[in-house]
Amino acid sequence: MVLPIYSYGHEILRTVCEPLTPETIPAALISDMWDTLYGAAGCGLAAPQVGESVQLFLVDSKLLYNQMNPESRAVYFEDNIGIKAVFINAVITAYSERRWVSEEACLSIPGLQYGIERPWSITIEYRDEYFQPHKRTFSGITARMILHEFEHTNGVLYLDHLPQRKQKRIAGKLDRISRGRVKADYPMSFTNDSR
User: What does the alpha-carbon distance between residue 148 and residue 156 come to, in Å, rounded to a whole number?
Assistant: First the structure.
């Protein structure tokens, strides 16, 4: 089932989410989040974006890999073909010193896209949808997607990485998004539905 995506301005997007246990893994939510992600033509989605304050997010960087030409793949993916994975109770244990800037966007902030500097690679410990533990290192665009979604579960948005002057310049655009004065090709939940 496709769920509405919460827009910028919703309090839950600034909430540090609660961990899950094997008994509380929301299987239906995970399925609905995949439906929502693909319905919105996205590549990553975190539980708070659909109104659930739990440490859960999805990433599908294989989609982007399949859409890229071979030259771009080499730059963004190095020796891998992307991932499709569920991350529960994730903890990032290492960040590379190498950093890079690339454009990011967010389904909760439609219509905006900015270059953000992030580490090239990360090491992350997490549980999958079966609560099996994993520790893996990811790089390039996959690491970027994971960081973006991981930060959602900690109440951080990618725009928080922009310089203060840039954040001030886009304040009006963000206000319009929070009031529902934006068009998206997917269902959204706005803080003020009196659009």
Answer: 9
